[in-house]
Structure to design on (350 residues):
């Protein structure tokens, strides 16, 4: 028995040695061939990651003229949400392209001061919720450069009222009459017997107010009855507390609100009312668990009466500021940038 066990032990030892030798041989072979089998699986994973990255970041990677350094920008208060999300995209994708948001001293950011700060050299480029004015082009020409505006998003202007105001909607003519002071009671436009208290931003600075005055009032000045407040949040609080109040503001800032409601608009008497929110409207008693969403389709196809484009205003040419502004505009217009425009609550233009 002892001899038999001894033979079995010797056979087992030989078997184990053989396995070790073969294992070492194959290990050496794999090492010499670049660890072929595992690397193929790894390469497939790496390639998939790279390809996915190309799909996600292809448009951004095609933007080659992105400068290095620190560049200041600012402008439209409406476009602050876009600046925030695009700023994060720029930081993560082009870390050498460093953006610094600069607001005007002593006042809230707006389109006019942004363009003026750009003209005075305080900003490299600026956001604007209105088109560049002829006089701004003239100032730029006198300074030796040209301005260009790059449309980057679509926005709608929402008409905001107290949540308990009982009215179906307004026509554009009725809206004009209210802000010119020709209509002073909601009863005159199909609402309750209640005095109207209109609010507005300052048209000389706010791009939204400038657009409203030009588009709805045909350039006529606001009525003296209109109370001017230059920050949106305080106005929305006033509207929420005054039953007869009315205000206008960028739709993404108003439609999801819980304390006010937005009105459907019609281009003329007898025309259908189009809401700035997706219908059916969510009852405000369900807010904030559920919030109304902007009517992207109506903004995109123009059936909502008050839509506009939002711009990045840049210099033309080969200066550092011009290249920076163009690069920023290209980033906003990339696939990733346009997805973030939607994330910020606006409608993508591409």
């Amino acid at each position: 028995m002892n001899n038999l066990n001894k033979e079995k032990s010797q056979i087992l030892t030989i078997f184990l040695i053989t396995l070790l030798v073969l294992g070492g041989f194959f290990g050496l072979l794999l090492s010499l061939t670049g660890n072929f089998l595992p690397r193929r699986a790894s390469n497939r994973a790496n390639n998939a990651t790279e390809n996915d990255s190309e799909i996600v970041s292809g448009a951004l990677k095609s933007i080659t003229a992105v400068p290095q350094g620190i560049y200041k920008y600012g402008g439209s208060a409406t476009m602050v949400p876009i600046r925030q999300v695009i700023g994060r995209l720029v930081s993560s994708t082009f870390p050498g392209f460093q953006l610094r948001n600069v607001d005007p001293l002593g006042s809230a950011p707006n389109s006019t001061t942004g363009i003026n700060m750009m003209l005075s050299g305080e900003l490299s480029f600026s956001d604007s919720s209105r088109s560049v004015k002829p006089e701004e082009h003239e100032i730029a020409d006198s300074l030796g450069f040209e301005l260009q505006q790059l449309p980057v998003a679509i926005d709608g202007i929402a008409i905001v009222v107290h949540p308990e105001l009982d009215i179906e909607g307004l026509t554009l003519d009725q809206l004009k009459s209210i802000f010119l002071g020709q209509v002073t009671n909601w009863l005159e436009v199909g609402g309750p017997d209640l005095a109207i208290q209109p609010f507005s931003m300052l048209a000389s600075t706010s791009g939204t107010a400038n657009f409203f005055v030009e588009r709805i009032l045909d350039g006529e000045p606001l009525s003296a009855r209109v109370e001017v407040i230059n920050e949106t949040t305080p106005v929305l609080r006033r509207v929420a507390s005054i039953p007869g109040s009315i205000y206008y503001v960028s739709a993404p800032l108003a439609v999801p609100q819980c304390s006010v409601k937005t009105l459907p608009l019609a281009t003329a008497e007898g025309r259908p009312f189009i809401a700035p929110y997706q219908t059916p409207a969510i009852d405000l008693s369900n807010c904030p668990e559920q919030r109304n969403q902007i009517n992207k389709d109506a903004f995109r196809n123009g059936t909502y009466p008050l839509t506009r484009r939002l711009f990045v205003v840049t210099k033309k040419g080969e200066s550092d500021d011009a290249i920076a502004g163009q690069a920023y505009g290209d980033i906003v217009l990339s696939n990733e940038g346009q997805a973030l425009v939607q994330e910020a609550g606006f409608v993508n233009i591409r």
Remarks:
- The two ends are 87 Å apart (CA to CA).
- Residues 57 and 336 are 7 Å apart (CA to CA).
- The mean pLDDT is 86.
- The longest helix spans residues 2-32.
